[in-house]
Amino acid sequence: MLAAATNSIPWSLWILGGVGFLVIVCGLAFAIMTATRRYVHSSGKKQEPDAIAPRPNAEDPNAFMAASMQGVIQKLREQEKELELLHQRERERAQQTERLSDAVTSNMPSGLLLVNSSGLISSANPAAETALGIRSLPFRRYTEVFGPESRVAAMIDVCLQQGETFRREEVEYTTPSREFRQLGVTISPITNKPGEISGALCLLTDLTELAGLQKQIQMKESLAALGELSAGIAHEFKNALATISGYAQMIRAESRKGETWENADRILEQTRAITHVVTEFLKFARPLSLADEDVPLASMVDRLAEDIREAHPGVSVVVEGDYSEISGDEALLRQALLNLVRNAAEAAGGQSFGGHIALHGSMENGPNGPAQRISITDNGPGIPSEVIPKVFLPFYTTKAQGTGLGLAIVQKIIVQHGGSVEARNLSEGGAEFIVWLPTKRVASRTVVSATARS
């Protein structure tokens, strides 16, 4: 029935209905385009015309829409270029700031270490590598660099765990090449949020040279005090000892061998011992007169090694490294080095597994130019830690028959040559004495009082 009804409608009515529908659709589209054109035209009066975007054609709606879209796209492109320019400027500013930060840290005279919360060194400047004597510090654990039992490692651990700050602490540090360093350390925590520690900042300052100068000043002050003392009592001591010795010789000469003769002999023995101490004391307190001659250290050290081998057959002596020719007094330098090597042989000679001494020479840069470094090591029991600061003090000795002036005289001779000497223990056992001598001697000012000169 529906098909029959449909077939009953004339074709003309179908055609008229389709045309009407198309007219309605076109009218609506034209109305929308006209409204859009008026809105864009009214808003365009308030802005400057774009020289780049093409002018829309009001007669053609499609062309008008295409031109409008092209203008919007052009505006977006311009804004994109402006944003890219701003981003590039910010990137250049950040790079400039980073370069400035790198330049500052690289040229800092103090060492800088950054340790993250996991205990790894994330950054280190060249001054830190120089102070610690280690290259390529980043990505190493601080316990590996300083040692798990060291004082610096303990301070860093407390800083990371508790956020405590350590200021101007002085610690002793030994480099992998066995060089002793006196370091000034400042450690502070790095916090991102309150109570959240993300790492530690360590500042390192090498105070070795300053500590050496302080020791030299103290030693010269001691020399001045000893000069005053020796000038006042040395002659009185010698006169009294000569009188006692004379009477003892008379008693022994007039007595037969017996108790009186033995007592007189003991008096003579003790007076000779005291005379030796006074003579050594005067050698130490009296200003040295140094010869200025070229001293070939290589041959001198070889002769010292031969002398020690003959005097201590059970001790092996090894000479290695480089030795130069320096300016100084050959006799006094031989006396100083022989005293150090003899002490090392006496310390190593008591070892059941055999004594061993090594003399190592090297040329290095000192504060006043090229310097000769001589290291004397032994495999003995080492030096007690509480004794090390006192080994160069006059009259301080741990030997039953020692005068306590041997190492004091050694230090005086080396300092008079413009050098320095230090003592320390080795981690593997034994002791080491390190002597620094400038290749060209710098005159050292001797402290002598007016009473001593008279």
Overall description:
The protein is an alpha+beta fold and 454 residues long. It has four domains: 49-107, no CATH class; 109-206, PAS domain (Beta-Lactamase); 218-285; 293-453, Heat Shock Protein 90. Helix content is 52%, strand content 21%. It has twelve helices and twelve strands. The strands form three sheets. A five-stranded antiparallel beta sheet has the order 2-1-5-4-3, sandwiched between helices. Helix 7 packs antiparallel against helix 8, helix 9 (297-311) packs parallel to helix 10 and helix 10 runs antiparallel to helix 11 (406-416). The model is unreliable at 1-9, 11-16, 43-53 and 443-454 (pLDDT under 50).
SSE layout:
Blueprint: H1 2-8, H2 11-44, H3 61-106, E1 111-116, E2 121-124, H4 126-132, H5 142-146, H6 151-162, E3 166-174, E4 180-193, E5 196-206, H7 208-254, H8 259-285, E6 293-296, H9 297-311, E7 315-321, E8 325-328, H10 330-349, E9 355-366, E10 369-378, H11 406-416, E11 420-425, E12 431-438, H12 450-453
Parallel strand pairs: 7-9
Antiparallel strand pairs: 1-2, 1-5, 3-4, 4-5, 6-8, 9-10, 10-12, 11-12
Helix pairs in contact: 7-8, 9-10, 10-11
